[in-house]
Protein 1
Amino acid sequence: MRGSVVSRRTALWGAAAVLGSGAESRLRVVVVGGHPGDPEYGCGGTIARYTGAGHVVTVAYLNRGERGCAGQSEAPCGELRTAEAGRACAILKARAAFVGQKDGEAVVDDPHYRQFDELIAAERPDVVFTHWPMDRHRDHRAAAALAQDAWVRAEGRFALMYYEVAEDTVGFRPDDYVDITGVESARRAACYAHASQRPDHYYPAQTAITRWRGEQSGHAQAEAFARHARAVGARLLP
Ligand SMILES: [Zn+2]
């Protein structure tokens, strides 16, 4: 069992060695987020780096954030935030996908594990990013649990990385850093595409984090990631 995982890891490291050298070496990346905006805030620069290098990124939103518009009922709010997510993904040259769970009511049980495992398997990812398991929001913790289950089901065939989002992530301990200085404008535009979500409040908070991560890694701004202890990953980052 362990041996097969190790051999697959070796294959992944082999893929990383030719990263960026042609279409056959394109990575397939999935970024899982609880709500529209989470992947853009936590990984927007890294997504832009991946797609800028020709890799393929799918952003999988657990729900449509339909409870997240002040004074609006769920249906129009969900439509608005779906459109915002579409614009953000267009800016980052990623594809938006929706898992179909309900905002604030993420279900983690056998049928939902299976549904999510199938979704991830269909993407054939090399790398999956998801929320930190100790995030404050229950939908984020559910996204972490679902992604980890998909990783277990896939017998570790993809790298599993955790990201941080302002005001939600606590106790985060990063392993790896991605320089996002050169893609800051794309990250900003993708976050501001979520105009219903007070970007003037949240974007500076996230930028404070990426400046701090930059100080730790020698860049003006960086996104930081924690690697699953049993997963490869650092060399699959842009
Ligand atoms: Zn969220």
Protein 2
Amino acid sequence: MMIVPVVVLLALVQCSSTLAKFTLGGQEFESSEDIVKSGRVCGTKQLTQEELTRYEEEFVDAYSKQEVDIDERMLSGIPIGGVPQRMNPHTIDVYWHVLQSSAENVLVSDEVIASQLTVLNAGYASALFQFNTIAIERIIDADLAATIAYGYEADQSIMKTLHNVDIGAYVLNIYVVNIQGGAFGWATYPRDYRFKPNEDGVVMHYELFPGVLENPYDLGHMLIHQVGHWLGLYHPFEGGKCSRNAVGGGDLIPDTPASMEPTFGCSESLLSKDTCPLIDGKDPINNYMDFSDDDCTNQFTFYQILRMHRQWNVFRDKKPFKLVG
Ligand SMILES: [Zn+2]
């Protein structure tokens, strides 16, 4: 009689442990915590404090000189000078480049890409950005596909130089690849375009596309995250310090609560997560720019949206901008 409950208990523990495991990029992970702490979730470049400060000064100077700045009133529709203002939404042309080792190894079908686009558009609907597929290119190149296995550290300048659609900073190139090492996705920042236009865009592991595999990021939200970087957003925990300004770290966004470290998982216990208790607000666990499981991410804040539109106007819009250097 004593043995039966013990066996049942062991079975339950084993079961829940098995369920939590998943394989991504050829590596087995024990949990969401495991994958976040592996450093593989996002490979977008971490700026040094000096870079962050300098780039921000340059950006603020650029948009403050624009004849019509996108300001808070234009987002909210509040009248400026008696005239109701409403910011125009942007629809961004997207070129998908799927890097395949063979014609048969499609990684993601056109239907999965369409599904990912739907997720992307849903994520950006309130931000007044939408995305439109112009073309899906399937690159059949086993040698090139093998180089991607090295991940972010090697960068993909060859792939991008060969296949980037460079008709302007306003076009989004998304590279769908099979990454066996390194991060599962990364993006270039808007400012980077004028220095390396051929390398502009987002690289994503195909296993993070919606419905491809079962893992914490299987709803397609990590592409929303990477496009957030492509539109000029940082992580809320950027710099690993409790601050929102460029001097002390943080994401430079006034309405994302400060946080020290990325979130992992998606559970009710996260509601009380507060890694910067001396600053108002709990950690932004539902923000697309955090690392929470896809189940948990569902929002950009007002000032993130404002920043994305200002970044767009300064660095990506079709009209030329006047930055020097
Ligand atoms: Zn990121």
